[in-house]
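Journal club prep, notes for RB
We'll compare a predicted complex against what the paper describes. Inputs for the pyridoxal-5'-phosphate case:
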Amino acid sequence: MSDLYARHKAVLPDWLALYYQDPLEITHGEGRHVWDADGNKYLDFFGGILTTMTAHALPEVTKAVSEQAGRIIHSSTLYLNRPMVELAERIAQLSGIPDARVFFTTSGTEANDTALLLATAHRRSNQILAMRNSYHGRSFSAVGITGNKGWSPTSLSPLQTLYVHGGVRTRGPYAGLPDAEFIAACVEDLRDLLGHVRPPAALIAEPVQGVGGFTIPPDGLYAAFREVLDEHGILWIADEVQTGWGRTGEHFWGWQAHDAAGPPDMLTFAKGIGNGMSIGGVVARAEIMNCLDSNSISTFGGSPVTMAAGLANLAYLLEHDLQGNARRVGGLLIERLRAIAAQVDGVREVRGRGLMIGVELVKPGTDEAHPEGAAAVLEAAREEGLLIGKGGGHDTSVLRIAPPLSLTVAEAEEGAAILDRALRCTR
Ligand code: PLP
């Protein structure tokens, strides 16, 4: 047991930092790599936790942060600061939401909380629609709308949540249906549900479910939902915490895969925009955002240092077309992983969009989820210098691959070769 781990056990929750049997202490990073306290180098196929969007220790971001910190770290959210307004301008333009207003928070959880606050205030209802198998954060209300109960430690919530089918396609009542039939079944389900309740304030949904195992609904599902929501005056909130900023390759936002639905009423973001600095936020149409009053502040939301990081990071992402890179390199990696999976018993599906790739494991020769297999692959990959994530339902049997969007083809090949060997340990 390392000295740090022993000290951790004395002061931190037992459930923290237990991703690996031997907890990992990261000391520094560069590009797509990080190093641990023993000097071991790892290819980071999880981009921190989808937080390192461009690259570790990106000089442009480091420079912007240190220059801003040299001027002032934090003034007060009661005042304006230039980086905050400039980043809000950029995000409002990119959001696709008409008359968009941006409010900054410090995390995805707080962003979703704010969106729920806005929706419930705007629609005067505390009922929310959420997707089965979803994840929206750690606060009391975010946990309350999280459909993936493995990540939702309490069933008590200040909100009344109604869960909607459509998140998972490989399991459940509509598994295996062709896209159009799957969408029709989910829409019928939604209509049926809405026939029995007073109108909820909003539907919140991840365009591709993240923690739930990178599950991808058929394109157009939310366009079909949108028609029904509009009939009932229900808002649509896209939780883009994992899917934003080009990660899915084809689109800058995940909602754009459902384009016929038009932009959502609100979108929430976090994770990658600060390249590891704590930025979250909500984009909403002005009439919705302005439901709140001047007492609605976030002490650290919009802090100049984080905003400077966001501006530099976003500029780099756009200038270097990292969305295009995610599409190209992600496409190659998905193909490579599918070829590997075809040789290995126990991979149910390799699915992905851009650099958001899930490898769902089952016990060899069965259709049963294989959480022990996923844990073993993580350990084996770490041994060979590769960090990946895991997720899924209660069973966490999906390997999650989400490297920084600057991943090179050579690095994709290197990671795939390690995964090829690591996957064989599930047999
Ligand atoms: N929403 C989604 C889709 C997420 O994946 C997460 C975190 O993983 C959150 C919200 C919560 O974000 P945070 O951990 O920054 O509070």
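Talking point for the session: The chain has a mean pLDDT of 93.
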